[in-house]
Description:
The protein is of the alpha+beta class. Helix 1 runs antiparallel to helix 2 (25-42).
Amino acid sequence: MSESILVIEEKRTELQNYLYSGLSPYKKLTSLNNFFSLLLAINNNNILKAYGSDLIDQYCSLLVEADIWCSHPAQHELILTTAEKLLSLNAFNIADNRLKKGLVQFQYKIDELTAVLNGKDALASEINKYYFPLIDNTNKSGQLYGMLDSISVKITKGKEQKFHIIPSEKEIEARIKSQVEISWNVALNYAKQFIKGISSQHEVIISFDKRVGFYVGDSLGVALTLAYINEIFNYYNASFTITAKEGSCFTGSITREGFVPPVSSEIIKKKVALVFYSDVKTFVVPKEDEAAAEDKLNELKKEYPNRSLILIAITDIEDLLNRRNAVEIKKLSTLKRTGKTIARNKLVITLLLVIVAFLSSFYLYEYDDNPAILDHDDLVLYVKNKTGKVLWTKKQKFPTPFMYSENYKKNFFRIMDVNNDGMNEVLVAVEDSESNNDVYGKREITCYNHDGSIRWEYLFGDTVKTKRELFTENWNSSIMFDTASIDGRKILICSNSNNLSFANAIYKLDLLTGKRLPGTFWHVGHCSSGFVKDLNNDGVQELIVIGTNNSFDHARIIFVLQVTHINGYAPSTEEYRFYEFPPADLLVYVKIPQTDLSTYFEMRCSMIEVSSLHDRNDIRKIVFSSIEAPDGSNVGGLIYILDYNLKDFNVIVSSAFAYPRDKLVKNKSLAPPFSDTKEYQGLIKSQILFWNGKEFVHRKDLK
């Protein structure tokens, strides 16, 4: 049995990596299913409940959400078998109903795929979507995984040519940046044959609709170029439209000259296999890959001879645009373009509607005084209505992390309807006068009415003492962690740190009045970020906070306490303990280890990245990352993942951390193991310590 537990623990760690990664939902479902199959094979109900209880909810959700296209039906049958056995055992009573519904939805998707493979038409695909197959290269089992994704493009007027990619992950942008620009230039040159006066400057938003994390290579070039052409023609109101034909899918890159080079025989065969097990009717491939693609298609049709899939091989973009079974070109009538040939009575109605719409939009712009958008530059906060009109401004001086982190900005200003009257108020911290150049010079939070008048102000000025020192002044500017609700009352949870020393206060304000509410939590070290979440869905909200504890060698800390229990002092040595307060009632208080890399760089302590704390509700995890080197070093950190149960941690090693550390391991400046290994991850996790009320201990030693 002990050997089985070791295997389970190893597979569980591997599973956590999968669930947090950018894999497709189906790959995550398969990974979960394999883990449940392992638990079922041991044939021990206690082990099944112990290891499966925290995963069954996600398993049920993925049965409903996962797209099963691009995988062989035999793989789906394995999932069905496991799910049915789990349901028959009644091991997870609360989740059984969700599991039953998930099974019904999953079976329905299998039936739809089976119908397609047997030659029947699938339900209509989304029109004007530009699909391309994605191969998941993270898989090590030899099983082919992948998915169909699609691209959406939106063009707006710009002051310069600029591309925005969603999801906006830097690694994704670097991988496809060249193809994004090449495809744009090819599309633009084509459009200029038919459209005059095309600007050289646009803001182009490229959205990957499934938003997974494994966009590698440039074989999305054909789909992207076609999506560009369609949007350019729409934007400039051309006389005809060019769109992807319903049920089409594309692969292949585009060169600067508009040619479509091969993707390789190996890759094209994998992509044909992915597309075969989907509702795609027409698959466009590079001409030089045609033979390999046809070989694979013929091989697959031996099992499903009635599957209707047409391969179209193209040499360049002109070749593609001449294929009416892959691309649809429609001439727009003058009626559709201008509306000027409508019958006279309808024209009058149309004009009236246009006038009403214009007046409405004019009213919204000129007279809508409800704050809806907050914008800023280095020194000014702009409060705007929903059409973008500036309603009023406030002088600001923001700290450096604020300028590049959307997640961090909520600490300094927020917009919300405080009194439920339909008009929004604006909450602002770090407000500066013209004469004050110190960003940390004020510790005030101000609530502004919709018109910019002050609703209330709160100035933090507590006095507190420890054995080491007395704190009466030099408080940093206030920051706003989050809002919450207690007994129907809206509250704002705030934090202030001492500028010259370690004291940090977390407290509550009544959002309606700005009055301080009872209870202050005193922490031995600055707390940089936090958010509110009902982690276990029991109706009680928790506050999750990251920071530093000066009492324990400047340790990095994450802790959780109930919003109703914000009071008392944090764990510390006697020298740092705050007088006249009880010990805080904490749900968990965790010490994150110092790495050997940060020690090598002679950092006083490695840090938690201020803006990294966020809630991953989709996987029921709390995520944050560390900084393991001095500013400007371009050395990355570790990603820490804490389960909602507040016990289980996982650690992911970033490549920006692994590369410099492994160089030091190779030259024997640091001790093995190498960074991106289970051994090193295990070493880090073994150093994560939990406060038991008296001291820090390993998780296994918690009672």
